[in-house]
Design a protein that fits this description.
By secondary structure, the chain is mainly α. It is 65% helix and 4% strand.
Length: 190
Amino acid sequence: MNRRDQREFDAFVHAAGERLLHTADLLTGDPARAERRVRRALMHTWLQWRHAVERDPTRIAYRALLTGYLDTWRPLPWRPQPITWAVVWTAEDGVAAEDGVAAEDAEPAEVAANALDAEARSVRFAVLSALDRLTRLERAAVVLRAYARFDAFDTAELLRVPVEDAHQAYEAALPILMTRGRRTRGRQSA
């Protein structure tokens, strides 16, 4: 690779890296695994960079990211762990349960930052909990369509399934995401 290729790849990583990382985080539910998957996807993209530039490097990176996620026949070196943390902000005490800092002892900006940080973690927990109820294909279809903003045809291509299957997985996931019930053997319970 020459310097021009290196500069182009660096610009690509700068432009697409954060979005790839967030997509991987939504797929895996674990920031460390997400980071490893993004590194592998970027390494794959780098190795194909001369061909990737002619085509769409973003598409190649997403496909590499999804291939690792959807290949369920491969034995996994890890087992998914349920998310057990939650952040509780108790306005009555003025205490963020996560760090135990009393609001009256903290600066107003610090209290506001802690509240926003706690809210962001609560939202992340709620989103990941909802996504955990989906199959891998449904989860990937929702993340690609709703977050990454791929259309149905691009989603199907990235998932390597027919358009009808990608659309069906997305449509099947929506009612599950909108209910609070747990999914059991393909069915919802209230």
